[in-house]
Specification:
The complex is a heterodimer of chains A (308) and B (235). Chain A is mainly α and 308 residues long. Chain A has one domain (10-298): ABC transporter involved in vitamin B12 uptake, BtuC. Chain A has helices at residues 2-5, 11-15, 22-54, 61-77, 83-106, 114-136, 160-182, 184-194, 196-201, 206-228, 238-253, 258-278, 284-298, and strands at residues 150-153, 156-159. A two-stranded antiparallel ribbon of chain A has the order 1-2. In chain A, a hairpin with a 2-residue loop joins strand 1 (150-153) and strand 2 (156-159). The relative contact order of chain A is 0.20. Chain B is α/β, with parallel strands linked by helices and 235 residues long. Chain B folds into two domains: 2-77 and 154-233, Rossmann fold, CATH 3.40.50; 87-152, no CATH class. Helix content of chain B is 37%, strand content 26%. Chain B contains nine helices and ten strands. Chain B has helices spanning 40-47, 70-76, 93-100, 108-121, 138-150, 168-183, 195-201, 219-224, 226-233; strands spanning 2-11, 14-24, 29-33, 55-60, 63-64, 78-81, 156-160, 187-192, 204-209, 212-218. In chain B, the strands form two sheets. Chain B has a six-stranded mixed sheet, sandwiched between helices. In chain B, strands 2-1-4-5 form a four-stranded antiparallel sheet, covered by helices on one side. The two termini of chain B are 34 Å apart. The mean pLDDT of chain B is 94. The chains are: A mainly alpha (308), B alpha/beta (235). Chain A binds chain B through residues 184-185, 187-188, 190-191, 194-195, 197-205, 306-307, and chain B through 48, 50, 69-75, 79-80, 82, 85-91, 95, 98-100, 102-103, 105, 134, 148-149, 151-152. Adenosine-5'-diphosphate (ADP) binds at residues 11, 16, 34, 36-42 of chain B.
Chain lengths: 308, 235
């Protein structure tokens, strides 16, 4: 199961006994889909933001996510930080790491052909994985959470942590939307993406926007990783599957589109959780990617392509 | 006041601008006339800090622009309405305007004031504030582009070929707006191929050809000049 989705070893699905009515079964899968979709959305949003603004397909994004999980793990186990401060610490650490990565790895390649940035991202991915293995070894770890109780919501079962994942993801998405759409600083991100020349003429510093975008993107990934790390496992390769899913999501949603990333995340997640439940867990990824192929055959540019 | 001395810009081995001298005095509208490829946009890029000069000096209000970042130049009082407008097409008209005031973002009151004066100058924009800038007509987009530059509260406004793609009547309105902006003391440098329109509102002008200033004088003087008439007015 863990290796099928790479994310969820869901207790809730096991808890849903055979004798239960089908409607419960449906809600249980709906819950699983929401949890999975929340994580996909947070990860894919960061990927879409970086691609949409700078045209960089950041293949190291999943590994920044992995680092976020380890940062929270270290905060809790080494610094004995409580859960929420540990998450904030992980987000801040990754925001800084993201900013450094932009400054050191991607900025020098801004004027180089796109393939250079792709190769740099892949190099960074292996570098981050090696560093994680050096520090934390290859063992599987679980992030301790104080929210491990099972709650009964109108007759169907959820863990507190599952509800926290969904709530936190929606709060973060709301905050990101507010920042991008309602603040002048947030608007500078879209401005640089839509007209770099226009942006520099009004005095927007494209370098600072690039740093900001990487910081937000990595911070969101850290939040997602911390949220799911109590349900799933932490290990140095955990970034690969997430990266693959997040890329599927942004291709589905239309490269670089923010609403597309959110819609794509939940479409993929529901496809996965319902196919696991109603067909077979072993077909889960096949169904999900089959869906991707079908949607792209109908609308090759993705669901929410921006007009240019 | 702006002073350009001996400005040369070289791309590879070709001089796109060679030894350009140009000044703009307090309260003036100056036009830079030249056909396609003469070097007008390159000069504007230098003035906005997007292209660095290979030689020469550019000073504005006593400060050297050659080393200033683009954002610093805007703060220092030079805003550009670029060729092709370079709007943020999917952002609302209001956002486009507000982003024009980006360097003054901490002074909310001043931004609100500029915003209101721009709406007063271009009343047609009021009904379009929520619309994506890219959905507007060419004339209205030109208003947004000029408005965006004005949000920076410039002392010198650079206008690069605002006539491009505008119908004659819309062009007249645009130039009337530029004259109105100038009447409040803002200096204007207007690059144009349409000499007839530009000379109607300019005090002085320069003719640029192949990166060199080949003629300069008052608007009246240039209007009389045979070369100018032949090259740009079609008389
Ligand atoms: N980045 C560049 N590299 C090389 N040549 C350029 C570049 N930008 C402009 N040029 C050349 O400089 C000349 C002047 O261009 P430009 O300043 O755009 O003229 P104008 O705005 O008067 O039409 C043209 O011959 C153009 O081909
Ligand atoms: Mg030009």
């Amino acid at each position: 199961m863990i290796f099928a989705t790479g994310l969820i070893c869901d207790s809730a699905r096991g808890a849903c006994g055979k004798g239960r009515p089908r409607v419960h079964f449906f809600f249980q899968e709906l819950l699983n889909g929401l949890v999975l979709g929340s994580i996909y959305a947070l990860v894919a949003l960061g990927l879409a933001l970086v691609y949409g603004t700078m045209g960089i397909p950041n293949f190291a994004h999943g590994h920044l996510y992995m680092f976020g999980a380890y940062a929270a793990f270290a905060a809790i186990t080494v610094l004995h930080a409580p859960y929420w401060p540990a998450m904030i610490l992980a987000v801040v650490c990754l925001a800084v790491l993201g900013a450094v990565v932009e400054r050191v790895v991607f900025r020098p390649l801004r004027k180089a052909p796109e393939v250079n940035a792709i190769i740099a991202a892949i190099g960074l991915l292996f570098f981050l994985e090696a560093v994680a293995r050096l520090i934390w070894g290859s063992d599987f770890r679980v992030l301790p959470t104080p929210y491990d109780k099972v709650v009964n919501l109108f007759g169907f079962i959820a863990t507190q942590q599952q509800l926290i994942v969904i709530a936190a993801a929606f709060v973060l998405m709301g905050a990101l939307f507010y920042f991008l759409k309602r603040t002048l600083l947030g608007s500078t991100i879209e401005a640089v993406a839509q007209s770099p020349a226009g942006a520099s003429l009004v005095g927007i510093d494209a370098d600072r926007v690039a740093t900001l975008v990487f910081a937000i993107s990595s911070g969101l990934a850290a939040a997602a990783a911390t949220l799911i790390a109590s349900i799933s496992l932490i290990f140095p390769e955990m970034g690969f599957v997430v990266l693959l899913k997040a890329f599927a999501v942004i291709v589905l949603g239309g490269m670089g589109s923010i609403p597309g990333a959110i819609a794509g995340a939940f479409i993929l997640a529901f496809a996965e959780s319902f196919s696991a439940a109603y067909i077979s867990t072993s077909y889960q990824d096949v169904v999900a990617f089959g869906l991707l192929v079908i949607i792209l055959a109908i609308k090759p540019t993705g669901l929410f392509t921006r007009a240019t | 006041m702006l002073e350009v001395r001996g400005l040369t810009v070289r791309y590879g081995s070709a001089d796109v601008l060679s030894n350009v001298d140009l000044t703009i005095g307090t309260g003036e509208v100056v036009t830079l006339l030249g056909s396609n490829g003469a070097g007008k946009t390159t000069l504007f890029c230098v003035l906005s800090g997007l292209v660095r000069p290979s030689a020469g000096t550019v000073t504005f209000m006593g400060e050297d622009l050659a080393r200033m970042r683009a954002g610093r130049i805007v703060e220092h009082g030079i805003a550009q309405c670029p060729e092709g407008r370079k709007l943020f097409p999917q952002l609302s008209v209001e956002k486009n305007l507000m982003l024009g005031g980006y360097v003054h973002r901490r002074d909310r009151r001043a931004m609100k004031q500029s915003f209101e004066s721009i709406i007063a100058l271009f009343p047609a924009l009021e009904a379009k504030l929520g619309a994506p800038a890219g959905s507007l007509s060419g004339g209205q987009q030109q208003m947004v582009a000029i408005g965006r530059a004005l949000m920076a509260r410039p002392k010198l406004l650079l206008l690069d070929e605002p006539s491009l793609g505008l119908a004659p009547l819309v062009l007249q309105q645009t130039l009337a707006a530029v004259a109105a902006i100038n009447s409040t003391g803002t200096m204007v440098l207007l690059a144009e191929q349409n000499a007839y329109a530009a000379l109607a509102i300019a005090h002085r002008g320069y003719v640029i050809s192949d990166g060199r200033i080949v003629l300069e004088g008052t608007a009246a003087h240039l209007r009389q000049n045979d070369d100018v008439r032949r090259a740009f007015i079609g008389a």
